What we know:
Layout: H1 2-20, H2 38-72, E1 91-92, E2 104-106, H3 113-119, E3 124-129, E4 132-137, E5 141-143, E6 147-148
Parallel strand pairs: 1-4
Antiparallel strand pairs: 2-5, 3-4, 3-6
Helix pairs in contact: 1-2
Amino acid sequence: MIFVIIGASTVIFSSVISTEVEPTLENIExxxxxxDPAEQKELFITKFAAFGKTLSLGTGTLCLLFxxxxxxxxxxxxxxxxxxxxxxxxxxxxxxxxxxAYSLVPLKRLLSIEERIILSRYKYVLxxxxxxxxxxxxxxxxxxxxxxVRTKNGKSICGL
Length: 160
């Protein structure tokens, strides 16, 4: 959307600003390009103004085109190896569980002090509840018999 706004304003300003002041011998400063005669100064400034107008018109058009393409297909900007829209495992929500089904403890109680420090980097931690994988938020309550899923060497927790 921002590209469309920038592109539209660039196109409008390229047609308005560039044509308002035409360079003439009266409004050219006499010391500007002192080595050229006045007619060449006027020719140079006229060509420069036309180039600036064409450049801003082209830039605005490309910006408009880019904005329309991105508004139609925003997935062109996505990273290739990003997570899908849905998480690979269901998210555990202790409030949705029956009250008598589990005795719940905070997830942080199952971790060591070093792992609690690392926990701040993650949004969800991968755990196994009744041998089913779940993603659990940091401040969520989990059953006491929950297993924390760790990497192959067993030193760090897995999480997103």
